[in-house]
Amino acid sequence: MFLVHPEKNKTDIKLFGAVQISDTAFLVYKNSEGKVVLKTGRDEKLQKRAVKNMLAKNPAVKRLLNKYKIKPSINTKTLKELAGGHMNETCNIAKGVYSILAENLNPEIDRAVVKEASMLHDLGKILIPSKILNKPAKLNSKEREIMNIHSTLGYELLKSQGVKKEILELIKYHHQNLNKSGYPEFEEDLPQNLPIGMQIVSIADKYSALREARVYRRKLTRIESLLILYKEVREGKIHRSVYEALVKYASLCDSDV
Predict the structure, then answer these.
(1) What does residue 68 show for φ and ψ, rounded to 5 degrees?
(2) How far apart are CA 53 and CA 136, in angstroms?
(3) Which residues pair with 32 in a beta bridge?
(4) What is the pLDDT of residue 181?
(5) Do 171 and 154 form a contact (C-beta atoms < 8 A)?
(6) In what order do the strands lie in the sheet with 36-39?
(7) Residue 220 pLDDT > 70, yes or no?
(8) Which candidate, 117, 107, 105, places its Cα nearest to that of 164?
(9) Residue 9 pLDDT level (bands cut at 50, 70, 90)
(10) What residues contact 230, with CB distance under 8 A and at least 6 apart?
C-alpha cells in the first residue's frame, strides 16, 4: 500500500497576466482548478512550470528557437530581474504618458491594456541566451537578430494563456516604430498606422531602459535619455505628442540623477 501525493508539478499552470499593486509588479498565475496566485518573480519553480506549459501548448515557440539554433532553456533569473525593476518602471512610465495624453486619446485605447502590456512586454527574454542578454559589449549582427526575436517569443508564449489579443499585439510590436523601421514587421491584418498604444509602451520601454544601468553602459540621466529619444522623434520613429507627454511625465516624476 502507498499514498499518492498531489502531483503539483503536473498541475496546469498558466501565466495569466500581470498587475501592479502599490507600485509593485506581480505576475498573475492560474492553475487548472481556477486558483489565482500573485507572484513577484522570485518563485523560480513556478516560473519554470508556467513556461514549460506555454512551450508545450505552442509549437511555434520551439520552431522559432530551432530556426536560430537556440536551446530551449528557461532563464528564470532574467524574469526575476525584470519583475524586480524594468516591468514596474515601464508600467509607471506608460501610465504617466497615457494619463497626460488621455484627453486626446481614442476611447478604444484601454488604460488597463497599455498597463498590462507594459509589464509583460519583455517576457520573451527568458528564452534568450544569457551570453547575449548580458554581453558587456555591442552585439554582432547574428546576436542582434536573436535578441530581436524576444518580442515575438513573448507574444507566442502568452498566446495560449488567455491574454487579450490587444495586449498580445502591444507585446509583439513594442519595438516597432512610427515609420515602421523597427521589428517585427506588421502583419497584413494590422492597421497601417502604428496604434498610439504601441507608441506608449514603446517609449516607456525605451526610457526605462535608458535610465537603467546595463552591463555595457552606465545609467543615463533624465536629460541624456530624453535627448536620445528626441533624436528618434526627428527620425520619424516616435510620435511628437507621445514624446512631449513623456517629457512632461519625466519633469514631474523623475529626478535627474
Answers:
(1) -100, 15
(2) 32
(3) none
(4) 92
(5) yes
(6) 14-21, 24-30, 36-39
(7) yes
(8) 117
(9) very low
(10) 243
Q: Which of 88, 85, 97 is nearest to 21 (CA)?
A: 88
Which residue is associated with the grid cell 514603446?
202
Cα separation, 75 vs 225, whole angstroms: 28
Decide: 246 and 97 in contact? Cβ < 8 Å.
yes
Contact 76, 48 (CB under 8 A): yes
Residue 93 contacts residue 246 (beta carbons within 8 Å): yes
> Which among 150, 160, 152 has a CA at the least distance from the CA of 56?
160
What residues does each domain of the chain span? 74-253
Does residue 226 contact residue 250 with C-beta atoms inside 8 Å?
yes
Quote the CA–CA distance of 78 and 48 in Å, as a whole number: 12
Measured at the CA of 246, the angle between CA 243 and CA 252, to 5 degrees, comes to 150
Q: How many residues does the chain have?
A: 257
- Closest CA relative to residue 147, chosen from 169, 131, 132, 130: 132
Average pLDDT of the chain, as a whole number: 85
pTM, two decimal places: 0.88
Q: Does domain 74-253 have CATH number 3.40.570.10?
A: no
Cα→Cα distances 187→111, 161, 169, 177, Å: 24, 21, 10, 14
Nearest to 119 by CA among 185, 235, 40: 40
Q: Where does residue 34 fall: left (phi above 0), alpha (psi -120 to 50 degrees), or beta otherwise?
A: left
Cis status of the peptide bond prior to 6, with omega within 30 of 0: no
Name residue 60's beta-bridge partners.
Answer: none
| Residue 189 dihedral angles phi and psi, to the nearest 5° | -85, 0
